[in-house]
Design a protein that fits this description.
It is built from seven helices and 18 strands. The protein has 477 residues and is α+β, with helices and mostly antiparallel strands. Among the domains are: 42 residues, no CATH class; 169 residues, Jelly Rolls (Sandwich). The strands form four sheets. It has a seven-stranded antiparallel beta sheet, with no helix packed on it. It has a six-stranded antiparallel beta sheet with strand order 8-17-10-11-12-13, with no helix packed on it. It has a three-stranded antiparallel beta sheet with strand order 2-1-3. A hairpin with a 5-residue loop joins strand 12 and strand 13.
């Protein structure tokens, strides 16, 4: 009976992996139809700087997708059992060299036996003798080196950029540490000076009152002594027999008693009450209100500009509340008025300094707040982004809080804020947003303002009454 090896010779070659030239292990097929070992194709695609593609036809595989060939794996297992030496670990499906009887084995790739040198003998095999393979790869070496040099240059550039970012980050952190220390140092210095001032006032008031009380005490002691003397003298005149003389002395004594103050201690009690009221009142609140004098920030009284309001918006009489009234009013369509987006600007422009204001949003499911350039488009649909002059955050659907940056950033606070604080540092190019209840930071834009800016308010659409609550500009103490 003929050996099955010659009959399986061509078939076994079809069962070999084009990469390792060994039996296919866990065969997978690419979209182009070529088959490889799963481990071989993953190793090939993992090579640095090499885009994923089919090693044979070079068809790109950007999504690195392949499909396992379970039936082929089963057939290979059966074929290896029939092939002589097929069950031997690492044996190549081509069997042995017919000239030298050396087995062909894969060891991370094909290699010829020690005795095999003639190229013509192995024209139909999928590997080359070492000397020819070496020459072939030497031709590829310059391009590979150039590619490696290009990759290295790119990596060095990325490394330099990352080092620069790290240095800038560290410098920014140190600068912010100095800023925090300076700002809190100002507060501590102001509080210490304020405490010393209050202590001095208390000491001066206490000393003045003590002196007054001591003078009053001396006066009371003198009056007590005079009264005692008058009483003794009156008692001495009681035994006198001369009635006229006795009546004269008694009249003089009564006149002296009438001249004495009725409540000599009243003013002292009142002074003590005034001292308690002045120095034991809401001292912390008083100091907090006075502290605004040292804050390097303006707390402006922001109001709304009706000339910019969309015709559907309803503003309160004091121009601190705005809502979508759902009905479009016949207002003049001026260049300053928004005609598509239900928005309105603040009445005053800011071109310098640091400003902070707060807006009550409550449980509204939709709103937009921030600052905008004076020249922003107010007609038609608006694309809110810093490149268009908008530095805003918005809420949609009662759940999605987003900063309209480039790209937009979804914000995930622990709880949706009911009151938004907006901080503008014009010279510093900063617009920050806070949950005003606890001053938790929400987001910060970095910007270079090319012109004056206005506060921006959009209460959101009426939504069949589901978003009818107004935005409210909150007064700050």
């Amino acid at each position: 009976m003929a050996s099955p090896a010659p009959q399986l010779g061509s078939l076994s070659e079809e069962f070999s992996c084009p990469v390792c030239l060994d039996w296919l292990q866990d065969p997978v097929t690419l979209p182009c139809g070529h088959v490889y070992c799963q481990g071989c194709i993953e190793t090939t695609w993992g090579t640095l700087g090499v885009p994923p593609a089919c090693p044979e036809c070079r068809e790109p595989c950007p999504d690195r997708r392949y499909a396992p060939c379970r039936l082929l794996r089963k057939l290979i297992g059966q074929a290896r059992g029939l092939s002589p030496g097929g069950a031997e670990e690492g044996a190549h499906p081509g069997g042995r060299c017919q000239e030298h009887s050396e087995p062909w084995r894969g060891a991370g790739g094909a290699f010829a036996g020690e005795l095999c040198r003639a190229t013509a003998t192995y024209e139909n095999l999928r590997f080359l003798p070492i000397h020819q393979a070496t020459g072939q790869h030497q031709e590829e070496l310059p391009s590979a080196i150039a590619q490696l040099e290009s990759s290295l240059a790119g990596l060095l550039k990325l490394k330099t950029e990352e080092e620069e970012r790290i240095w800038n980050h560290q410098a920014t952190v140190l600068s912010l540490e100095d800023h925090i220390s300076t700002e809190f140092g100002k507060l501590r210095g102001w509080l210490a000076a304020r405490e010393e001032e209050w202590q001095g006032r208390l000491r001066r008031a206490g000393t003045a009152q003590l002196r007054a009380m001591q003078r009053n005490l001396q006066e009371l002691a003198g009056r007590c002594q005079a009264a005692q003397e008058m009483l003794t003298e009156a008692q001495a005149h009681l035994p006198q027999q001369n009635t006229v003389e006795f009546l004269t002395d008694i009249k003089s004594f009564l006149d002296w008693v009438k001249q004495q103050p009725a409540t000599p201690c009243g003013p002292n009690t009142g002074s003590l009450s005034q001292t308690l009221g002045q120095f034991k009142g809401p001292i912390q609140y008083t100091a907090w209100k006075d502290m605004k004098s040292i804050l390097n920030i303006d707390l402006p009284r922001v109001t709304l500009d009706p000339a910019t309001a969309h015709p559907c918006l309803v503003l309160s009489e004091d121009r601190t509340r705005v809502r979508d009234g759902h009905l479009r009013r016949p207002l003049p369509d001026t260049p300053a008025r928004f005609d598509f987006c239900v928005a309105v600007l603040g009445a005053g422009a800011f071109a310098s300094g640091r400003r902070y204001w707060e807006v009550e949003v409550g449980e509204k499911p939709a709103w937009t707040l921030g600052v905008v350039h004076a020249s922003v488009s107010r007609k038609g649909k608006i694309q809110a982004s810093p490149s268009k002059g908008f530095w805003v955050i918005r809420l949609r659907g009662g759940a999605e809080l987003m900063a309209k940056d480039t790209p937009p950033m979804v914000l995930r606070p622990q709880a949706l804020p009911h009151r938004i604080g907006v901080y503008l540092d014009y010279e510093g190019g900063q617009v920050s947003f806070y949950d005003a209840r606890g001053m938790a930071h929400l987001y910060t834009f970095s910007a270079r303002f090319a012109e004056c800016v206005y506060p921006y308010f959009c209460p959101g659409l009426y939504d069949s009454g589901g978003n009818a609550t107004p935005l409210k500009i909150c007064p700050l103490p």
